[in-house]
Specification:
single chain, alpha+beta, 12-stranded mixed β-sheet, 8 helices, 12 strands, globular
């Protein structure tokens, strides 16, 4: 199953407005449009981005909030960019998270690039998680048997608080990937009148080396993110009295524009600034009553298309083995 971010990596994304994160204890920053990310770059240079346990704790709390918190739905806005071309998907996405330990969610996004329509749908009822991806008319389906993975985790060892089914698909998987692949630091910011925590991530050196090896000497792709900013609501929304601890914005950035592809960032390259390649915004967040489980069962309207069972790939991710599952494409 592809995480939400993979659609963005295929198509690319961008926004002219971004967060300026500040260290805890400093005054919160505003976020005017078109202003360079100076404070964040200073953080990189001063600390060489040593992983901060406080940031990791905050990100873990966000994941637990999604998995066990009250149900909500929201709208999703996405801006993407690839090779200098901006692709905008505004008001065409939605995200519904049941929480309460159910592992049920629905995420969908439709994008237009001026020529073609692209769409991503991910949905899970806690037993089966499906992804339907359509890029320029090419439709692909995949499924993960998350119920089997949860059972495998239960039999293999003590059941983790965040079960595999809670970390597969949707924003939950995106945040889990960031937690694994990035060194994290904690800052603060504001967006309008909203106070935010910002978890700032730099791609880990060993992950960068792994990706460089996979590239086999080819140029570091411009759409491959090496920096992330995750904005998290510090307080409940005044109108809905809801939303504290939920992500409201996830930014992905590439290497500084003058850095050598695939190499570690230098102070001079950081000073040159980065290119934002993705922006995902969650807005109009409101509490809801939990929908019936039938709401999260995938209705396959592409019966003629083979789907791929990706469960085996997640066995490796979670260190479990469910021997009765097959990983080959199924009908």
């Amino acid at each position: 199953m592809a995480c939400v971010g993979l659609l963005a990596c295929v198509i690319g994304w961008n926004s002219p407005r971004h967060l300026i994160a500040q260290e805890p204890g400093e005054a919160a920053a505003t976020t005017p449009p078109h202003q360079p990310d100076r404070q964040s770059n200073q953080t990189d240079r001063q600390s060489n981005f040593t992983d901060d346990p406080a940031a990791r704790t905050v990100l873990q709390q966000v994941l637990e909030r999604l998995a066990y918190g009250a149900p909500f739905d929201c709208k999703v806005r996405q801006r993407i960019q690839t090779t200098g071309r901006e692709v905008i998907g505004a008001g065409t996405g939605s995200y519904l998270q049941v929480g309460g330990g159910t592992s049920q969610f629905s995420f969908q996004m439709t994008l237009h690039d001026g020529v073609s329509q692209h769409a991503l749908q991910q949905i899970s009822d806690g037993r089966l998680a499906w992804t339907r991806r359509e890029i320029a008319g090419d439709v692909r389906l995949s499924r993960v048997d998350v119920g089997w993975l949860d059972e495998g985790a239960r039999l293999a060892a003590e059941v983790p608080r965040l079960r595999p089914s809670m970390l597969i698909g949707g924003p939950g998987e995106m945040l889990d990937v960031i937690a694994r692949d990035y060194d994290l630091k904690l800052g603060t910011s504001t967006l309008g009148q909203q106070e935010l925590y910002v978890v700032i991530g730099n791609l880990k050196t060993d992950k960068r080396d792994e990706l460089r090896q996979m590239l086999g000497g080819r140029r570091w792709p411009a759409h491959l993110p090496t920096r992330v900013n995750i904005a998290i609501a510090k307080n409940d929304d005044l109108e809905t009295n809801f939303g504290r601890g939920l992500p409201v914005r996830i930014e992905h950035w590439g290497d500084p524009v003058n850095s050598t592809e695939g190499t570690r960032n230098s102070e001079s390259s950081l000073a040159s600034g980065r290119q934002m390649i993705s922006l995902l915004e969650f807005y109009s967040i409101k509490p809801i009553n939990p929908p019936p489980v039938e709401r999260f069962r995938f209705e396959n309207q592409d019966a003629e298309i083979d789907f791929t069972n990706e469960t085996a790939r997640y066995e490796a991710r979670f260190g479990i083995r469910v021997s009765s599952l097959e990983s080959r494409p199924l009908r």
